[in-house]
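Predict the holo structure. Ligand: adenosine monophosphate.
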Amino acid sequence: MSEDLFLKIIRREVPADIVYETDEVLAFRDINPQAPVHVLIIPKVHIRTIDDLESEHAELVGKLFLAARDIAGAEGLSDVGYRVVMNCNEGGGQAVFHIHLHLLGGRPFSWPPG
Ligand code: AMP
């Protein structure tokens, strides 16, 4: 999968069901949802993986989680609960190399995830 895919979504070159946007963060529904609610939350700047994060990104990463909180609230997930995941590298399940939080909700989740 192209590592530029999410940059193309940011630039509106690839369509997406966008649910949240700020100057720094974009969120849109996953094209292959793994739960009734499955939203991807991304920074608008290109950061390839968690391993590429620098200390200067700390506030931005915090904003991804604040977006997850707000979207979960808007989707009615706050009380019942939800899952937030970020995969890192192929072994961690990452397929698109532009960091993104998965916000998943609307069904039960078990732990460990398998
Ligand atoms: P990951 O495996 O953590 O890199 O997650 C990548 C996610 O991007 C997967 O859940 C895909 O279903 C999702 N995805 C791929 N292409 C698109 C797209 N065009 N629009 C929305 N989600 C996408």
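The chain has two helices and five strands. The chain has one domain: 5-105.
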